[in-house]
Amino acid sequence: MPETMRAIIKPRPGSGLEMTTVPIPKIGPRDVLVKVRATSICGTDVHIYKWDAWAASRIKPPLIIGHEFCGDVVEVGSAVRSIRVGDFVSADSHRYDGTCPVCRKGQPHICANLEIFGVDTDGCFAEYVALPESSAWVNDPGLDPAIASIQDPCGNAVYAVLVEPVAGQSVAIWGDGPTGLFAVGVARAAGASLVAHIGKYPQRLAIGKAMGADLSIDISQPGVDVVRTLLQATQGVGVDVVVEMTGNPRAVTEAFAAVRKGGRFSAFGIPSQPITVDLNNQVIFKGVTIYGINGRQLWQSWYQMAGLFRSGALNVLPVITHQIKLDEFQRGFDLMTAPDRVAAKIVMYP
Ligand SMILES: [Zn+2]
Ligand SMILES: [Zn+2]
Asked: Which end of the chain has fewer beta carbons closer than 10 Å to its terminal beta carbon, N or C?
């Protein structure tokens, strides 16, 4: 066992990241040590890379970043019971204490003392990563490592779409980032009668089609009326389920206008400012149910996701546009920040 490893760190406040050599983390009695097989770049990592206002307020360098990964367990702590050396694992990035009232009421994904892996603690853009047994998820041994690495964001999509069943229902999804694209696939796999996808980048909308969208609405085209298009597609009734994954005020307004009376609104996109909602007409009189979606339902979303992969109904490979070496991380971040948005999910191999 080597003593040191390569890792990508935010060395100090400011933009950029560095590849460096650091000690392999030591594990406590309730932790496991994982040799990383694959890791993927998230929008959160891009915020940290750019060092925007959110990153400056939250991140305390030096920090190993990254929170989406899979790998093989090489060591387990003395108190670990459910994980063995050799298990192929991923992890949920939301670390919970298990003891606060929110956790004890069965909602650990929004723990009162929540910490996010790779944001508040050292992450996985490295050769090895230590994590608590309580955060680990054991994958099917044959799962493609590229797919196993993207389960944290795919699990967001599973939670957002399947917080209530969608079989036989019309579903509209705003957002052509990776989570929106995964959501299209989840809605299709779970038997939605109509999957409408709203985005603004042609290449992304094409991936949405590959994921199973019946109807793509490109808001970059002049004269596009998203609400009217969705009403026409649902005989004027409105959509049963709307899933908002952009946080854009225009999209939020459209989603409230397009959801049918008695329908469901899954709110996942994060607006940069507080936004206005007409509570009377858009929620109360319409009888709309709103779910705030943060993280993944632990561990229901993971079981559902594993089941969708096993069934063959959900193929996420169209969303994984690039597979590169961890050493090429700079190219990965250049692709993630390119204005053309050709890259969706980028998987890196240490
Ligand atoms: Zn992520
Ligand atoms: Zn808690």
From this structure: N
Could you state, in order of their start, the residue ranges of all structural domains in the chain? Answer: 4-150+316-349, 156-292
Residues known to be catalytic: 44, 47
Fold adopted by 156-292: Rossmann fold (3.40.50)
pTM listed for this prediction: 0.98
Between the CA of 107 and the centroid of ligand 2 the distance, in Å, is 8
Q: What is the SS3 assignment for the chain? A: CCCEEEEEEECCCCCCCEEEEEECCCCCCCEEEEEEEEEECCHHHHHHHHCCHHHHHHCCCCEECCCEEEEEEEEECCCCCCCCCCCEEEECCEECCCCCHHHHCCCHHHCCCCEEECCCECCCCECEEEEEHHHEEECCCCCCHHHHHCHHHHHHHHHHHHCCCCCCCEEEEECCCHHHHHHHHHHHHCCCCEEEEEECCHHHHHHHHHCCCCEEEECCCCCCCHHHHHHHHCCCCCEEEEEECCCCHHHHHHHHHHEEEEEEEEECCCCCCCCCCCHHHHHHCCCCEEEECCCCCCCHHHHHHHHHHHHCCCCCHHHEEEEEEHHHHHHHHHHHHCCCCCCCEEEEEC
pLDDT digits (tens, 9 = 90+) for 176-222: 999 999 999 999 999 999 999 999 999 999 999 999 999 999 999 99
- The CATH H-level (homologous superfamily) assignment of domain 4-150+316-349 is Medium-chain alcohol dehydrogenases, catalytic domain (3.90.180.10)
